[in-house]
Design brief:
Rossmann fold; 352 residues; 3 domains; SH3 type barrels; 9 helices; alpha+beta
Length: 352
């Protein structure tokens, strides 16, 4: 329970359905961040207090679990390293893989819990003939969070509940009001939980930087200098500090070896083919390949039609139309309609 309205209503729904509910909040912030914590972030002191108050209203026990060491090692440190390697990592995916649905399941075993539940907007459906669990998008497509859940497998899905999967956000807020929860109108957090001021580059630079390097166009002509790759991501237009130009320019590529940012026209930032590694298949096995799927390359990006070719080294994604600025380090998630087939980490753009 993060102290927000979603996890609070998830707990309330389970309690009303007769489950024996225990509220658990993660204390996962390094000590140096606590002084800069905002009340709207995840797992700050204020939100821990909110979760405790909700549990008191619901009449369920509440525990705070110290995951600071695990979170720093599994999420923060790899996130920083990825930025310094010219990638654009997704910390929510890292957290879901290792902490939220990894360490948390271990804690559930210690508490004697059969299931864990969260306030994620997604659905789980069981095929009664095979027993296989399917991970599905939420009914509320505006709030759907299935993208960051593609790391889950059959073992985890058998023990996870997503009580909000059939609900819209307005319905969740109405339920919170009806139950009398003090977080009913609490604003959603829009930031990375451990970067409370939303300054990603600034946070990375507190721990390291690639240092200055060249900004070039796609022909190799040097146009200027940058102060560190950690401030850039493919598709970015603002913050290039190159002055005006006849046309808009976008980040096309980040070369960590050369410490170089390549920029180009909008069409040059699109890609026709990417390679994906560290692939997880929700069903534990890949679909027959090659096959046609929908691919989401960032959390809020629309699905792109593509054909995937599966090999032992990973997956090659061949887009049917050029797709906007896939970023190495981000996740590429594969969908068959509303079902999440799986996904992995974008390793490289191989054709534009």
């Amino acid at each position: 329970m993060s102290g927000g309205v979603d996890s609070s209503v998830a707990a309330a729904l389970l309690a009303s359905d007769g489950y024996d509910v225990v509220g658990v909040t993660f204390n996962q912030w390094p000590a140096d961040l606590m002084a800069r914590a905002t009340g709207n972030g995840c797992c700050t002191p204020d939100t821990i207090d909110d979760a405790r108050r909700v549990c008191a209203i619901l009449g369920v026990p509440h525990y705070v679990v110290d995951y600071r060491r695990e979170f720093e090692a599994a999420v923060i440190e790899p996130w920083i390293k990825a930025y310094l390697n010219g990638q654009t990592p997704n910390p929510c995916v890292m957290c879901n893989r290792t902490v939220r649905f990894g360490s948390f399941l271990t804690k559930a075993d210690e508490l004697g819990a059969e299931f864990i539940a969260t306030g994620h907007y997604a659905r789980i459906e069981t095929d009664r003939s095979t027993g296989r669990r399917r991970l599905l998008t939420a009914r509320d497509h505006e709030k759907d969070q299935s993208y960051v859940l593609h790391v889950l497998g059959q073992r985890q899905l058998a023990r996870i509940l997503f009580p909000l999967g059939e609900l819209s956000k307005p319905e969740v807020r109405r339920l919170a009001t009806d139950v009398g929860l003090p977080v009913a109108l609490k604003a959603d957090s829009q930031e990375i939980c451990f970067v409370p001021d939303n300054d990603h580059a600034g946070y990375v630079r507190n721990h390291g930087t690639t240092g200055p390097g060249e900004i070039v166009d796609t022909s190799g002509t040097v146009l200027g200098r940058h102060h560190g790759l950690e401030a850039f991501t493919p598709g970015q237009r603002r913050g290039l500090d190159l002055g005006g130009g006849a046309s808009r320019r976008y980040v096309v590529d980040l070369d960590a070896g050369a410490n170089r940012v390549t920029i180009g026209a909008q069409a040059e930032a699109a890609a026709r083919q990417i390679n994906v590694d560290n692939v997880n298949w929700v069903a534990s096995a890949p679909p027959p390949a090659p096959c046609r799927v929908g691919v989401r390359t960032r959390y809020r990006m629309p699905l792109a039609d593509a054909t995937i070719v599966i090999a032992s080294s990973g997956v090659t994604v061949e887009f049917h139309e050029p797709t906007w600025a896939p970023a190495p380090g981000q996740s590429a998630v594969f969908y068959d309609g509303e079902e999440v087939l799986g996904g992995g980490t974008i390793a490289a753009v191989t054709a534009r």
